[in-house]
Amino acid sequence: MKRIETLAASPSRLIPALLMFVAVSGFAQGMSPAGSANVTNDCTTIAPQANINNCDLSASDLRSARLSGASMKYTNLAFVDLSFAEMSGVDLTAADIHGAQLFNANLSGANVRGSDLSQAKMQQTKLKLANLRGANLSQADMREADLTGADLRNADLRHTDLNNTKIDGVIWGNTICPDGTRSDASPLRTCAANLTP
Fold first, then answer.
1. CA distances from 39 to 29, 32, 90, 140 (A)
2. Mean pLDDT confidence for 20-24
């Protein structure tokens, strides 16, 4: 049986340990920095339809995770490995996903509006009908990704590798193209002729 040390036996460690417990448990249960509890949030439940808002999951290994329909608004997913993850319909509004591994992940129909996906590895990622309005996709590797019907209005694609990426039906508008030009400056108002960084 594992011995558990009690805090009462060491009063000098009581306050720091208690403060650490409050900080960790408060934020792990979705407490906002102001201290208001959000009882529907659970940063430990990685499952479809889960509420994982405002959580710090940075540098986690979430390969092949099943997160369809989950709410992950404002979540820190920087440098997370989400390769092969099923994330269709997930809400990633304003999430920090920079440097993440999303190889062959399915984000079809996802709301990724205003998120930071800069330098993300997104080869063969499925983003059909995804809302990427205002997303930062600069320097992302999106080779062979599927952006069919995705909304890229106001998105930043500077220096993004879109080699062999499907862009049929993409909604362009004030999009910064991989070569740094704006989609609205093109005669067809798209980035289709400006995909080479």
1. 7, 11, 20, 35
2. 37
pLDDT at 2: 21
pTM for the full predicted model? 0.79
Q: What is the pLDDT of residues 64-86, one digit of tens each?
A: 999 999 999 999 999 999 999 99
CB-count burial class (<10 Å; 0-12, 13-18, 19+) for 5: exposed
Q: Which residues of 83-96 are buried (b: 16+ CB within 10 A; e: fewer)?
A: bbbbbbbbbbbebb
Domains of the chain by range and CATH? 10-39 (no CATH), 45-197 (2.160.20.80)
Give me the DSSP letters along 128-187: TT-B-TT-B-TT-B-TT-B-TT-B-TT-B-TT-B-TT-B-TT-B-SSPBPTTS-BGGGST
pLDDT in tens, 160-195: 999 999 999 999 999 999 999 999 999 999 999 999
Contact 165, 125 (CB under 8 A): no
13-16's contacts with Cβ under 8 Å and 24+ in sequence apart are: none
**Hunting for tokens 């805090």 — which residue is that?**
7
CB 24 within 8 A of CB 30: no
